[in-house]
Specification:
This protein is of the alpha/beta class. Helices cover about 40% and strands about 20% of the residues. It has two domains: about 170 residues, ATPase, nucleotide binding domain (Nucleotidyltransferase, domain 5, 2-Layer Sandwich); about 140 residues, 2-Layer Sandwich (Nucleotidyltransferase, domain 5). Strand 4, helix 2 and strand 5 form a beta-alpha-beta unit. Helix 3 packs across helix 9, helix 5 packs across helix 7 and helix 7 crosses helix 8.
Length: about 325
């Protein structure tokens, strides 16, 4: 079996796959500002689902906190989200040409040709249209995020909402409420404007060809999915595990690596006491923030220095169980 971990800004996804990349167990958790605790809870959940003992032959990590996850559990492969999401899609939609991925705080587009990534773009500046923004608006309107998209589909008179910025969108929504517009019409208008914002900013200049795959947590929103279909004029494919694709891709990459011996520290890491601390290196003008991961009172990993002064020195004295991330360091 193979373990895939995707730690994003809002959620952590953990999957367990078999030798044919089929999902055996999975966990989807909100970080709540504690990614280490979320990773540990994810491992606990998949262990309960799959049962002990687990014979894990490879571990892959991806997401914005992939290095933290890699050092925490002992990953064999560490890859960026673009690679992981693209690899995951190929099995579900082999002829996919465009991937739309919208997560908790960022969004991205991946252009595929013949199962190879030829272009991509990410939006990490504006949160308009991402999961956290939609969560916030659903809460402000007093409805559950699960019902948000369904309410948009019931609209009969879609309202124009300014969607270029989260602040403008929220202000415009409040204004439309005060004018007496129906909640369904406001939600539908918001979905439309957020999709236009994505197409005008994230995918600008990209050739969007079908089949188009929509994944990430926001793919669960039926209103956003319908708005994409209206704007693009093509059907949107939402894969079965749309919210776990990054973790699935990481697990697939771990299987492909065919490591002779995994660096995985075992499911016992879910019970260990972990903490982190940082210091600013004054060795040069970069003044890097160096992170240290501490397990049971002992420093077990070090990263964050551009030149490798501290991390390379640490790895050279702790060669056993070292995770290879130099390819990402450039």
């Amino acid at each position: 079996m193979y373990l895939g971990i995707d730690v994003g800004s809002i959620t952590t996804k953990v999957v367990l796959t078999d030798g044919e990349d089929r999902v055996i167990a999975h966990a989807y958790l909100r970080n709540a500002g504690k990614p280490i605790a979320a990773i540990q809870e994810g491992i606990k959940r998949i262990t309960r689902q799959a049962g002990n003992p687990l014979s894990i032959e490879g571990v892959g990590a991806t997401g914005s906190a992939r290095h933290l996850a890699a050092y925490l559990v002992g990953a064999d492969v560490v890859k960026n989200e673009i690679t992981a999401h693209a690899v995951a899609v190929i099995d579900y939609v082999p002829d996919a040409k465009t991937i739309i991925e919208i997560g908790g705080q960022d969004s991205k587009i991946i252009i595929l040709r013949e199962q190879v990534v030829v272009d991509f773009a990410m939006n990490t500046v504006c949160a308009a249209g991402t999961g956290s923004f939609l969560d916030q608006q659903a809460s402000r309107l007093g409805i559950s995020i699960e019902d948000f998209g369904g309410r948009a589909l019931r609209s009969r008179n879609r309202v124009r909402i300014a969607g270029r910025c989260t602040v403008f969108a929220e202000t415009d929504m409040i204004h439309k409420q005060q004018l007496g517009y129906q909640i369904e019409d406001i939600i539908a208008g918001l979905c439309d404007s957020l999709v236009k914002n994505y197409l005008n900013n994230v995918s600008r200049g990209k050739e969007i060809l079908p089949p188009v795959v929509f994944q990430g947590g926001v793919a669960a929103n039926k209103g956003i999915r319908q708005a994409f279909e209206r704007e693009l004029g093509v059907g949107i494919i939402v894969p079965p595990h749309f919210d776990l694709m990054g973790a699935i891709g990481a697990a697939k990459l771990a299987r492909r690596a065919e490591s002779s011996k995994t660096c995985f520290k075992g499911v016992e890491v879910a019970q260990w006491n972990f903490s982190t601390r940082s210091f600013e290196c004054d060795g040069c003008g970069n003044t890097c923030d160096v992170m240290e991961l501490i397990a049971e009172g002992e420093v077990v990993a070090c990263w964050g220095d551009t030149c490798g002064k501290h991390s390379d020195a640490f790895e050279s004295t702790h060669e056993e169980g070292r995770v290879e991330i130099r390819s990402e360091r450039g």
